[in-house]
């Protein structure tokens, strides 16, 4: 009987060591050597202090900053430990109420899409993502906020739009995804412009 179990135990031990110890150690070492910044969270530092990550959104609600995509991680926005969508379907009245509230908040902040010549509010400013942690918004969502940010910072809209254009990333490999703007990087660039 022991002779039958011995090969099974040996195979289990060898595979457990390979998949549980060797492979993770090799991949960790490779990642640290080749993609050091990315495997450590793509942290963003200013003056030696970590201010955020390029991969996880954070809450900006002051008028002088661009606002990111809404977080579905309530009651603590942008909390990575409770990542996940709201799970509200498109026909759920609670979703419609949330969107109406978000539209009202955008209008109260000084950007009113009902005025002549205004653009419609981009969907990513009034809906949350599947993870609830998106660090990026569409160029349309950034353009929608340019006038408010420029006014709050006493800058020209052309200067602010130029920063948006500079921080707009194209499709990955020219094919995948949509153009996007990292909100943290854009806001840090605005702070740098204000400091200069």
Quick description:
This protein is mainly α and 196 residues long.
Structure description:
- The chain is mostly helical.
- It has 2 domains: 1-40; 42-195, no CATH class.
- Helix content is 46%, strand content 8%.
- GO terms for molecular function: ATP binding; P-type potassium transmembrane transporter activity.
- The system is composed of three essential subunits: KdpA, KdpB and KdpC.
SSE topology sketch:
Layout: H1 2-34, H2 36-39, E1 43-46, E2 49-53, H3 93-108, E3 136-137, H4 139-153, H5 157-166, E4 168-169, E5 180-182, H6 183-195
Antiparallel strand pairs: 1-2, 3-5, 4-5
Helix pairs in contact: 4-5
Q: Give the helix level as a range of percent.
A: 40-55%
Shape descriptor: elongated
* H/E element order: HHEEHEHHEEH
Give the overall pLDDT as a whole number.
84
Major β-sheet strand ordering: 3-5-4
Total beta strands: 5
GO molecular function: ATP binding; P-type potassium transmembrane transporter activity
GO cellular component, one term: plasma membrane
Subunit structure: The system is composed of three essential subunits: KdpA, KdpB and KdpC.
Family: Belongs to the KdpC family.
